[in-house]
Amino acid sequence: MELFESQVYLQRRNNLQGKIKNGIALILGNNESPMNYPANGYHFRQDSSFLYFFGLPIPGLAGVIDFDENKQIIFGNDVDIEDIIWMGPQPMMKDLGEKVGISDTRPFAELEAYLKKAQDAGRKVHYLPPYRPDNKILLHKTLGIPFEELKSNCSVELIKEVVELRAIKDEHELRELDKAAATGYKMHMAAFQMARPGLVEQEICGRMEGIAYQYGMGPSFPIILSVRGETLHNHYHGNIMQDGDLLLSDAGAESNMHYASDFTRTMPVSGKFNQRQKEIYQIVLDANNRAFEMVKPGVTYQSIHLEAAKVIAQGLIDLGIMKGNADEAVAAGAHAMFFPHGLGHMMGLDVHDMEDLGENYVGYDDEVSRIDQFGTAYLRMGRRLKEGHVMTNEPGIYFIPALIEKWHKEAKFTEFINFEKAKSYIGFGGIRLEDDLLVTAIGGKYIGNRLPITVDEVEEAMRK
Ligand code: GLY
Fold first, then answer.
1. What is residue 145's predicted lDDT score, i.e. its pLDDT?
2. Beta-carbon neighbour count of residue 201 at 10 Å?
3. I need a labelling partner for 68 at 20 to 30 A (CA). Which of 21, 136, 274, 455 fits?
4. How far is the CA of 251 from the centre of ligand 1 (A)?
5. β-strand pairing of 263-268 with 34-37
6. What is the pLDDT of residue 464?
7. Nearest to 98 by CA among 60, 54, 52
């Protein structure tokens, strides 16, 4: 198992202890989860907040930071002889604890009594929103909170402090993000090199997954790779690629220490963009580049999203697919027929970083609130940027037949959309171009090498 120096975890826990004055933080690890029978589990993935504060990527653990008594404890069981027979020799809890700066380890069975005693003394047990059924059961049983109240009883104070800490990536984390990016780069280069008419999407997907496992823990999320790229999260990989198709490939890797990358590129299956494809592609690339130029501390990502939307609207107006004034079209939300999602999300230990803690706590704050308008409402990251933030930049243009038909029937935004022209693009698919960015003191920085992205660079990568 790969870990940072124990000091890193100790410092992170101490940072949290410096912020929360009373009670206990309970950070639950994840458990094995059966797939089709108990001993055949899904790929194990540790909880990311547990990884952040307690590091250990193994099941059956819970971390406690006791703010009142100034204690840091991991609850977990030593392996027994049966475990050793099946899994080989394993470190004891005491040794595992030492690796992450914890000198106090206790059997898991003692957790319940520890929490009950604290509750009986009127102390608060802060916990994060649970998302796994077994951890919901544990919280229900140990804290006596009804299932339906588990969400409303979780600690907003703890959530906010964890988000503030995890949102700023330190040098150790940036090195891991670079590794995840390097693997993501290899995955996408394989897609460029393999794509050609007659191939089934699955053949490329399998190769990309193989690379993700060859260099790390596998893909950071299920790969989206499709000639039907207008479906935003298309996980069907059974299409045979045809000459004239665009292939959208959205994939990233998880490093051995569980940090993510997330890139999207779109390529012509034939190896050469046609004129229509080039025109739409260039608009998306312009939006991506404009967003990158704007990234710097102090700017809200919401304003960058809206600027990218304006670049898209203006580009579509220039092609006659939209009409009118781009600023007004974006203010009204008309652009969202073609760009119905957000510009990006935070990224770190999770590809959608900390989404389990609540999207609004991660991407918004007291100053910047979510805009409740179709399309922009999907923007996960809107807040003011700070040095050390990491997020994706992923504008796109899609021709979604059902949405075009629906809005046309409803005569929606007829002042901004040329429906006849838009309908002539049905079958075109979708284009998304996504990079991962770090906010530095002077502006945005690509994480890893930027994948080929201009029309010429993509065609060149496909020729090789
Ligand atoms: N790249 C996939 C997603 O952000 O959901």
1. 95
2. 23
3. 136
4. 8
5. unpaired
6. 83
7. 54
pTM listed for this prediction: 0.96
Domain boundaries, the chain: 6-167, 171-463
- Residue 296 is predicted with a pLDDT of 98
Q: Do domains 6-167 and 171-463 have the same CATH topology?
A: no
Is the domain 171-463 a CATH 3.90.230.10 member?
A: yes
Ligand 1 contact via 353 beta carbon (within 6 Å): no
Q: How far is the centre of ligand 1, averaged over its atoms, from the C-alpha of 116 (Å)?
A: 40
How far, in Å, is the centroid of ligand 1 from the Cα of 170?
A: 23
Please indicate whether residue 108, judged by its CB atom, sits closer than 6 Å to ligand 1.
no
Q: What are the residue ranges of helices labelled H in 216-340?
A: 275-294, 301-318, 326-332
Alpha helices in 295-441 (DSSP H): 301-318, 326-332, 359-363, 401-409, 419-423
The whole-number mean pLDDT for each consecutive block of 10 residues of the chain, a chain of 464 residues, reads 97 96 97 95 97 98 97 96 91 97 98 96 97 97 95 97 98 98 98 98 98 98 97 93 98 98 98 98 98 98 98 98 98 98 98 97 96 96 98 98 98 98 98 98 98 98 94
| pLDDT given at position 234 | 87
Task: Report CA-CA distances (Å) from 78 to 29, 196, 225.
Answer: 16, 52, 42
Q: CA nearest 323: which of 452, 413, 215, 236?
A: 413
Closest CA to 165 of 370, 28, 351, 13: 13
Q: Is 221 in the pocket of ligand 1 (CB under 6 A)?
A: yes
Tell me which of 3.40.350.10, 3.30.460.80, 3.40.50.1820, 3.40.50.720 is the CATH number of domain 6-167: 3.40.350.10
Ligand 1 centroid to Cα of residue 375, in Å, is 15
What's the Cα-to-Cα distance from 260 to each of 91, 115, 173, 296, 354, rounded to whole Å? Answer: 27, 33, 10, 22, 12
User: In this structure, is the dihedral angle defined by the CA atoms of residues 104, 108, 109 and 113, taken in order, positive or negative?
Assistant: positive
CA dihedral 363, 368, 369, 373 (to 10 degrees): -90
DSSP strands (E only) in 139-203: none
Q: Provide the 3-class DSSP secondary structure of residue 146.
A: coil
